[in-house]
């Protein structure tokens, strides 16, 4: 890859190439009011991250920090029999301080076929919109992925495109070198992306230092995410199952997914 922007991946479409061009243009325009979502990449991200990206002017994939074991960077839940099922991409365990951008996938295991079958043949075989997105999902898992970050970004791009969200995506590692840690790092990333506002999830209230970001000219807005409730073909025994990967909403609601996601929001 060259420059700060994502290179064409095996799943890159015309829409994502146009998104690439928009990102380059945005970062060349100079300082304007802009809201950034700065977040680690997630495999098959959940609706909270998709919502945050949709509300933002740019999504910076925070791939320069330490890979979190047993986190969401290589796994997520989909619908399962009477509840939910965890899909985990096996990764090569190297140093504990290994960065997200360096984390490799363990392709000695047949995880791609397992995940594809779980999605198409089991969890969502009767979902009303499976046929609409079957080819895109199949194509994703037909590719060989060596680095976890590239797979995670591609699952995110697939979902953003299917939802109709055109927020530009850029990797932090392509924006430059960052010397800060924690809140200062986030502030430096926002500065590099010409963003003067950070949209943050409520889970960061306990550790994000708002004063540090203000010192760097970055204001903080809180997402206050509200999970939408929607018809679910494979709901649990107690009814609706929340906090699944966003693909659950997509395959159950199809083109109405974005409207359902936005309608559940509280005003910022």
Describe the fold and architecture.
- The chain has 268 residues and is α/β, with parallel strands linked by helices.
- The protein has one domain (35-263).
- Helices cover 36% and strands 12% of the residues.
- Strands 5-2-1-6-7 form a 5-stranded parallel sheet, with helices on both faces. Strands 3-4 form a two-stranded antiparallel sheet.
- It is globular, with a radius of gyration of 18 Å.
Provide the structure class: alpha/beta
Provide the succession of SSEs: HEHEEEHHHEHEHEHH
Outline the low-pLDDT stretches: 1-22
Strand count: 7
Task: Quote the beta fraction.
Answer: 5-15%
Overall tally of domains: 1
What is the radius of gyration? 18 Å
Average predicted confidence as pLDDT: 88
Shape: globular
What brief labels describe this structure?
two-stranded antiparallel sheet
Brief sketch in words of this structure:
The chain has nine helices and seven strands. The protein is α/β, with parallel strands linked by helices and 268 residues long. Helix 3 runs antiparallel to helix 4 and helix 4 packs antiparallel against helix 5.
Topology at a glance:
Layout lengths: L13 H15 L6 E5 L7 H8 L3 E4 L13 E6 L2 E6 L22 H13 L6 H13 L5 H16 L5 E3 L10 H11 L4 E4 L9 H6 L3 E4 L24 H7 L3 H7 L5
Parallel strand pairs: 1-2, 1-6, 2-5, 6-7
Antiparallel strand pairs: 3-4
Helix pairs in contact: 3-4, 4-5
